[in-house]
Amino acid sequence: MSQISEAEAVVMDVLWRNHPLGADEVVAALAGRDWAEPTIKTLLNRLLTKGAVSAGRDGRRYLYSPVLQRQAWVAEQSTGMLDKLFDGRVAPLVAHFSQRGQLSAQDIAELKQLIQALDHD
User: Fold this and answer.
1) CA dihedral defined by 67, 69, 74, 77, rounded to 10 degrees?
2) Which long-range contacts link 72-78 to residues 24+ away (Cβ below 8 Å)?
3) Is residue 2 within 8 Å of residue 50, measured between CB atoms?
């Protein structure tokens, strides 16, 4: 499957949360984005061409549903980011956020729990 752009990911997020949806419903869900209706329809068509969504007829309109699963997209994106920015390693990623004070106490507690769970496996 082709890479999806940031704008396409916004449209996918709408469909991941609720589907199937008609183009008009996707447009309504993105009303706060200041995107024109033709822009959203173009994004839907691009996603359809890329195989990220499917479209089924419902009378005179099409209903769109995601084919690309959110978990698969997140895995692909996170692996790409790790490879590109941190040579595929997680520890430098965590250090990056830690050094900038961007880890909350809750984040740190959750990371400790994850590490403890990994130690017990």
Assistant:
1) -20
2) 73/4, 73/9, 73/12
3) yes
Q: What is the pLDDT along the chain (121 residues), one digit of tens a residue?
A: 568 999 999 999 999 999 999 999 999 999 999 899 999 999 999 999 999 999 999 999 999 999 999 998 988 888 888 888 889 888 888 888 888 888 888 988 998 898 889 887 6
Task: List Cα–Cα distances, 71 to 18, 76, 104, in angstroms.
Answer: 15, 9, 24
Do the Cβ atoms of 56 and 63 come closer than 8 Å?
A: yes
> Locate tokens 């984005």: which residue?
33
The values of phi and psi at residue 112, to 5°, are: -60, -40
Q: What gap in Å lies between CA 64 and CA 48, rounded to an integer?
A: 9
C-alpha span between 107 and 109 (Å, rounded) = 6
pTM for this entry: 0.77
Q: What is the identity of the amino acid at 88?
A: G
DSSP bridge partners of 58: 61
